[in-house]
Design brief:
The protein is of the alpha/beta class and 427 residues long. It contains 19 helices and eight strands. The structure holds iron/sulfur cluster (2 copies).
């Protein structure tokens, strides 16, 4: 008989609020049931996502903690942003986890540290920490933050009082000076992580870490390419969760699972099998990231008969579209290759940020999107600001465009549904 593992003791050992955590799991489980498990014609290989949904707050944490206790993983390092290079963390023998904050939790507690009109993502991670409901935050030996938007930059000053935090300085313009500054910053991270783990990064360990991350990106690129077909073989919801899982699950297991999903989706494309009917309205998403369990928007689009065929965001193509050059022969060459790849992420914190608009239009064309949906989380000034230029770029390209602002509550669901249905009707 399978051993019954005592997860409650594990949560208590991490200092978590067991009862509140159970409440969070029940809420997320209910959402998964009603949003994912009601989808028709899902590829069979998406059973991996069902495994992820149940394993992320149980077996995966146990696996990470066991590895740390056994010494196969030195430390657990939490990150919040795509600019933090996972290769550096892996090469120093640590495991990297993305710290999701895709739900409102303990907002009153969070508002003791950040203003009420702070974006939900920031408020979410403060609330998760203060309420002690996130096993990833509690497992992390060190959190790596970054000076990106003003909200995050200042929130880490507060968060740093609650958890050991190292903040990377991300430039906001791209030129030769800032490239050198960023290359230096990547080395500063490497120093800090090696100090944390007590393990030296070598040419071999860094090259292996680069290959591991690149293989994950290649698998995601394969899966993404199948979504250009009509009918689309896999839903936007399942594709989004695949990238969300990439921030948390073991890289090798995840890469194998995504390759299996890509194999099946390629066969479905050849056979003309879709998750949505041929001719379903195709949406390209762009905007702020969607951390687990922020599935609200995609669920509304797809339940309304549309299908999301691509995501230009940090929980989408920005995560996997560019590889790190694997050919460097020295540590310096490999560090520079990593820095250069990450500096090319098209986040709205940069000015100018023309590359993001070019990516959105290119992706809309490649994925044969009928419309672009640009969504910002409430109080996210930089993405809201960029929506004006994005609308103009879409207009010039002749692609219908809709901008929305939302938060993590369910309060605006009716209003979003009305606007999205009207948009789908119009295109
Ligand atoms: S949107 Fe910008 S700040 Fe936010 S996670 Fe992505 S890269 Fe980082
Ligand atoms: S959504 Fe906007 S305001 Fe919120 S953390 Fe990301 S960049 Fe900052």
């Amino acid at each position: 008989m399978a051993e019954e593992y005592d997860y409650n003791s594990m949560w208590e050992g991490l200092g978590m609020d067991v009862q509140a955590h159970e409440g969070l799991l029940a809420a997320v489980g209910g959402m998964y049931q009603s949003m994912f498990l009601t989808q028709q014609n899902r590829p069979e290989s998406t059973s991996y996502l069902d495994f992820v949904a149940t394993n992320l707050h149980s077996g995966r944490i146990r696996e990470m903690l066991d590895a740390r206790n056994e010494g196969t993983t030195k430390k657990v390092i939490g990150t919040f942003c795509l600019y933090v290079p996972e290769e550096i963390i892996t090469a120093a023998g640590a495991v990297e986890v993305g710290l999701c904050a895709g739900a409102d939790w303990a907002p009153q507690e969070a508002e003791k540290y950040v203003p009420r009109n702070t974006c939900p993502l920031i408020k979410g991670f403060m609330g998760f920490k203060l309420a002690r409901v996130c096993p990833y935050i509690e497992s992390a030996d060190l959190v790596v933050g970054e000076n990106t938007c003003d909200g995050k930059k200042k929130a880490y000053e507060q968060f740093g009082q609650l958890k050991p935090t190292f903040v990377m300085d991300v430039p906001h313009v791209r030129n030769e000076d800032t490239r050198q500054q960023w290359r230096h910053e990547v080395r500063r991270l490497a120093e800090r992580i090696q100090q944390e783990t007590g393990q030296k990064i070598t040419v071999d360990s860094l090259r292996a870490a680069i290959k591991l991350a690149n293989n994950k990106r290649r698998a995601l690129q394969r899966l993404d390419a199948t979504r250009a077909a009509d009918p689309v073989p896999i839903s936007g919801l399942d594709s989004l969760l695949t990238v969300q899982a990439a921030f948390m699950d073991d890289s090798a297991r995840l890469t194998n699972a995504i390759n299996r999903m890509a194999d099946e989706c390629e066969k479905r494309v050849t056979a003309g099998t879709g998750v949505a009917p041929k001719g379903a309205k195709r949406i390209l998403y762009t905007g702020t990231p969607m951390a687990v369990p922020n599935w609200k928007l995609f669920n509304i689009i797809e339940k309304a008969g549309g299908v999301v065929v691509g995501e230009e965001c940090c929980t989408g193509s920005r995560y996997y579209k560019d590889l790190v050059d694997e050919t460097g022969e020295t540590l310096d060459e490999l560090y520079d290759a990593i820095a250069d790849r990450y500096l090319n992420i098209q986040c709205a914190i940069f000015t100018p940020n023309e590359g993001r608009k070019e990516d959105v239009i290119r992706m809309a064309r490649e994925q044969h999107a009928d419309g672009i949906l640009d969504c910002s989380l409430q109080f996210c000034t930089i993405y809201d600001m960029e929506s004006f230029g994005m609308e103009k770029a879409a207009e010039e390209a002749g692609i219908p465009y809709l901008h929305l602002t939302t938060d993590y509550s369910g309060e605006d669901e009716g209003q979003l549904k009305t606007r999205i249905e009207a948009f789908l009707e119009m295109i």
